[in-house]
Design goal:
The chain is of the alpha/beta class. It has a single domain, classed as TIM Barrel. The protein contains 19 helices and nine strands. The N and C termini lie far apart (44 Å).
């Protein structure tokens, strides 16, 4: 990317001079089903329908480092996304999909290094150049301790794995974002817009500081960092929030870390419409909600967007509703005329003043977090979690008192039964057979040897990514790799 195409510091109006005039945002729909084959069908359908990037949803056992045949997985296999236990699962997931022709986002954190290793093994097997692979690994473990809870290891061990991915990607995957720092889940947990940005950027500062201590080139790292934000209820606040995010990050990189590289100062972010605003009551109302939220993301200058299906309050979206959600973005892109203008409502005094207010409030909060000892300390003592919980409770009280209105929930209520939706669940026995077959076909001695070596290296300061990739190449499962690391690192407990 030429510097001539980049916008003007601090990029409040957009990171590119022409924004969407020359290139639209990436339309990236999030999907993952209870079977690898069904997920693959959905991805091929989405690609045929015009998406320009895939986003993978993984089930809870995969996120927590358990194979599908682990007793801890029973009852959760395939419920929140696709179950991935082996490198062959990844191979089937991307059957007939050219990895060099797509941009891939993987929403995975504790086991991010393992899933990336599986993906790299597949790329090497197919003969792809790692330098041509494009995508994003969420790899944001700090927000798991803050908002989601899918952590495995103690914080310091988790940060080590995160920085190992940073270093590996710098040298081997130059077009890969090695982390997507997520405010989305912080907002979904009940935070305000200001808290979403403040906690997200405080986390990002922590990652950069940790990387610097590990002697990683943080100037190069900042070009491989992206962000993931929520587009929520308040239309103008969300537009202002996105504009503020660019300005705040630009100053953090330049002023706090003394990095003058203009490409390092760019806050590149993906936006997903707010799942927490979807209602099971009157699900048709979810379509105008996500339309407004998608519009806010476009007007706010997002680099990629996912639009939730109207039925996602009930389950994973049907193919029909997933396509309808994609069409919302396509209509905005091709029929609204908005992409012809850079920062089309940024000169509004309302949006401009809201942007300034958010910038000021976020910076105050970031300074407060750092003065109190930083993110790690405030996670350990529960300060951040408690603050988000208080915001969530306040909003719920506002709903109960009708100070906040949700159509179909506390205003214009119809007497109706909630729509039911059948969820196709993968029979657990099928997954057990798949993993059994996988293990029986591998060289067990090679698998054991690579797992033992991984444990040994985990006790040192060496980068673990090459050894995790070796485990993948030797057909070790996700659960086996995670368990080997757990032997050395232990598990996190509050």
């Amino acid at each position: 990317m030429s510097n001539k195409k980049i916008g003007k510091f601090p990029f409040t109006k957009g990171i590119y001079k022409d924004m969407y005039r020359n290139r639209l945002w990436t339309m990236r729909q999030y999907a993952g089903f209870s079977s690898v084959s069904e997920s693959n069908k959905r991805y091929q359908s989405l690609l045929e329908s015009g998406v320009s990037g895939l986003s993978i949803a993984f089930d809870l056992p995969t996120q927590m480092g358990y194979d599908s045949d682990d007793e801890m997985s029973f009852g959760e296999i395939g419920k929140s996304g696709v179950p991935i236990s082996t490198s062959e699962d990844i191979e089937a997931l991307f059957n007939k999909i050219n990895l060099e022709q797509i941009s891939l986002s993987m929403t995975i954190n504790s086991t991010a290094s393992i899933l990336l290793a599986f993906y790299i093994s597949l790329a090497k097997k197919r003969g792809y150049s790692l330098e041509k692979l494009r995508g994003t690994l969420q790899n944001d473990i700090l927000k798991e301790y803050i908002a989601r809870g899918t952590y495995i290891f103690p914080i310091n061990s988790s940060l080590r794995l995160t920085t190992d991915v940073f270093e590996y990607c710098q040298h081997n995957l130059p077009n890969w974002n090695s982390i997507s720092v997520s405010g989305y889940h912080i907002r979904e947990a009940g935070s305000t817009a200001v808290q979403e940005l403040a906690f997200t950027f405080a986390n990002a500062i922590t990652y950069l500081e940790t990387a610097r201590v590990a002697n990683i080139d943080i100037e190069k790292l900042t070009t491989q960092i992206s962000f993931f934000f929520n587009s929520h209820r308040n239309f103008f606040e969300e537009i202002s929030k996105f504009r503020a995010a660019r300005e705040i990050w630009a100053h953090i990189v330049r002023d706090r870390f003394k990095i003058d590289n203009i490409k390092s100062q760019l806050c590149r972010f993906h936006v997903q419409t707010a799942g927490s605003t979807l209602t099971a009551q009157q699900i048709e109302n979810n379509t105008p909600r996500t339309t407004l939220q998608s519009l806010a993301a476009v007007l706010g200058g997002a680099q990629s967007i996912h639009t939730n299906g109207k039925d996602e309050a009930l389950s994973l979206p049907s193919e029909k509703n997933a396509l309808s959600a994609l069409r919302i973005q396509q209509v905005i892109a091709h029929e609204s005329g908005i992409p012809e203008f850079v920062d089309p409502i940024g000169d509004s005094s309302l949006v401009d003043n809201m942007t300034k207010d958010i910038v000021r409030e976020v910076n105050i909060k970031i300074d407060d977090i750092l003065e109190k000892g930083g993110v790690e300390k405030l996670i350990q003592d529960g300060t951040i979690q408690n603050e988000i919980a208080e915001s969530s409770i306040k909003f719920q009280n506002d709903l109960d008192d009708k100070k906040a209105v949700v159509i179909g929930v506390n205003k214009f209520i119809n007497k109706e039964s909630l729509e039911e939706k059948n969820i196709t669940e993968l029979v657990e026995e099928d997954r057990l057979l798949v993993i059994q077959k996988f293990k029986s076909a591998r060289n067990q001695a090679d698998a054991n040897k690579s797992l033992v070596l991984l444990e040994e290296k985990a006790k040192t300061n060496e980068n673990l990514m090459p050894y995790i990739i070796a485990c993948s190449d030797n057909k070790c499962t996700l659960g086996e790799i995670s368990h080997s690391l757990k032997k050395v690192f232990g598990e996190y407990s509050l």
